[in-house]
UniProtKB/TrEMBL annotation:
Pfam families: SNF. The chain crosses the membrane at residues 40-58, 70-91, 112-140, 194-216, 272-292, 298-320, 341-366, 372-395, 416-435, 465-491. Keywords: Membrane, Metal-binding, Sodium, Symport, Transmembrane, Transmembrane helix, Transport. One of its GO terms (biological process) is sodium ion transmembrane transport. GO terms for cellular component: brush border membrane. Na(+) binds at G46, N53, L311. This is Transporter. It comes from Pundamilia nyererei. It is found in: Membrane. Belongs to the sodium:neurotransmitter symporter (SNF) (TC 2.A.22) family. SUPFAM superfamilies: SNF-like (SSF161070).
Length: 502
């Protein structure tokens, strides 16, 4: 006997297989869709492989045991990442809706899952595009020989080099002082950095134009820039991508290649960690220093930052679609608003919020977003997604859907992981993460020339008010799922009570 929770009205909310076939024929000319299978697959790869594979994964790998870290990583990739990825792709393709529409169709009480996913996509897009703005700054400054971060600049009297640069290094100084003008506290805003603002405006303009042009434009762009790096990073909203796939378009997920291949022989990672340099330092300090030692360094610098731009933009297309499509499903804006206006409005609001990262304290805000916006919320949402599909939508129904789409039912491996292993793993990781975070003081690293440890970054505790920000970043997207369900339950009960009085 299989455990499936009561879900009245499900058959009325989702299209039948026969209806899907008819809808495919009727909407073939009007509905946006991928031109071919390669375009869809490469776009999904574009969502999965991003800047995190360059600026975050190597740092996390080394700081958690080096090569030994890859053992649990690959185990969780097989038992957690792949099953959840396939589940999201399949349910989005089956129901042909965005994240909000999918979970609302399964059960109106699950609408919060889509809202939480939308919030995570939005917050990740904010700091990802800030990284792209920094990359643009470095790209524009790479057309110089020698590169501007090769030598220390002269002081005002031109009698020697700037002491801050001499005490640290040319690449450190260029990143923290010239590019970011970093303050020594997250509470010290200190105005705005106009060069970064201009780069942010350029970055959001590019993303906006590409998203307005449609899914085929992003797919064609990604097709021409992928395979520069190979890695794995769970998409924030893979449902939205598969939503544009034809229902009978085959998913081939039995043999995904997710091998990370990046070998940095030009830096001492242990030295990097001892100096407190985090993930951003890998892309903007370590790699840039390595480039200065190469013949024809400006050429290599231009190519390197073009590569980073491609990696970042391809991920952002998915994040923005993961915000715009759910907004349309929620009907929060007039129905006459076309997709182009909603996309433009989303990018404009995102640009305004990103001014937070254009302050001297911007790098500390970015690190805060990176640490908390995609941690607990993604774990919580992933757990609710698997429970929703297996125990509310029904695993037998889901198996039949996959058979309808690809011609065969999922193997026993997917059955076991979806039903038991993957939800249990997520729950254990979530509890362990919350317990460990609650037991330690939250610190962050700052660039402080007056510190005794300078030029190493200094670890200082977050101010007390930052915990409210952390709740907004991690708590709200996680709690929106049960809170929405509770509010809807109260509303339904109240409506029934009022109806009985009439």
């Amino acid at each position: 006997m299989r455990l499936v929770l009561p879900n009245p009205g499900l058959d009325l909310r989702i299209p039948r297989h026969e209806d899907l076939e008819r809808m495919e024929k009727q909407e073939a000319a009007d509905r946006p869709k991928w031109d071919n299978k390669a375009q869809y697959i490469l776009t999904c790869v574009g969502f999965c492989i991003g800047l995190g594979n360059v600026w975050r994964f190597p740092y996390l790998c080394q700081s958690h045991g080096g090569g030994a870290f890859l053992i649990p990583y690959l185990i969780l990739l097989v038992l957690e990442g792949m099953p959840l990825l396939l589940l999201e792709f399949a349910i989005g393709q089956r129901l042909r809706k965005g994240s909000v529409g999918v979970w609302r169709a399964i059960s109106p009480y699950l609408t919060g899952v889509g809202i939480g996913s939308m919030l995570v996509s939005f917050m990740v897009a904010l700091y990802y595009n800030t990284l792209i703005a920094w990359i643009m700054w470095y790209f524009f400054n790479s057309f110089q020989d020698p590169l501007p971060w090769t030598n220390c600049p002269l002081n005002e009297n031109r009698t020697g080099f700037i002491p801050e640069c001499q005490q640290s290094s040319t690449v450190d100084y260029y990143f923290y002082r010239v590019t970011l003008n970093a303050s020594n506290s997250i509470a010290d805003s200190g105005g705005l950095q106009w060069p970064i603002i201009i780069c942010l405006l350029a970055a959001w303009t590019v993303v906006c134009i590409c998203c307005i042009r449609g899914i085929s434009t992003s797919g064609k762009l990604i097709r021409n820039i992928r395979t520069l790096l190979n890695g794995f990073e769970l998409p924030e909203d893979s449902i939205t991508a598969s939503n544009y796939n034809a229902a009978l378009h085959h998913l081939n997920s039995s043999n995904p290649d997710t091998v990370f291949g990046l070998d940095i022989k030009t830096c001492d990672m242990q030295k990097l960690l001892s100096e407190g340099v985090e993930g951003t330092g890998l892309a903007f300090i370590v790699f840039t220093e390595a480039i200065t030692k190469m013949p024809g360094s400006p050429v290599w610098s231009v190519l390197f930052f073009i590569m980073l731009l491609c990696l970042g933009l391809s991920t952002l297309f998915g994040n923005i679609e993961g915000v715009v499509v759910p907004l349309k499903d929620l009907n929060l804006f007039p129905k006459k608003w076309p997709h182009e206006i909603l996309t433009g409005a989303t990018c404009f609001v995102s640009f305004i919020i990103c001014l937070l990262f254009a302050q001297p304290s911007g790098i500390y805000w970015l690190t805060l977003f990176d640490n908390f916006a995609g941690s607990v919320p993604l774990l919580t949402i992933g757990l609710f997604e698997m429970i929703a599909v297996v125990y509310i939508y029904g695993i037998d129904r889901f198996n039949e859907d996959i058979k309808f789409m690809v011609g065969r039912k999922p193997s026993i491996f997917w059955q076991i992981t979806w039903r038991f292993i993957s939800p249990l793993i997520v729950l254990v990781i979530l509890v362990f993460y919350l317990v460990t975070q609650a037991q330690k003081q939250l610190n962050y690293l700052v660039w402080d020339i007056n510190s005794e440890t300078f030029p190493a970054l200094t670890s200082i505790p977050y101010p007390s008010w930052i915990y409210a920000v952390i709740f907004l970043l991690a708590g709200v997207p996680s709690l929106v799922v049960p809170m929405y369900a509770l509010c809807r339950l109260i509303f339904v009960c109240y409506k029934k009570k009022m109806s009985s009085r009439l």
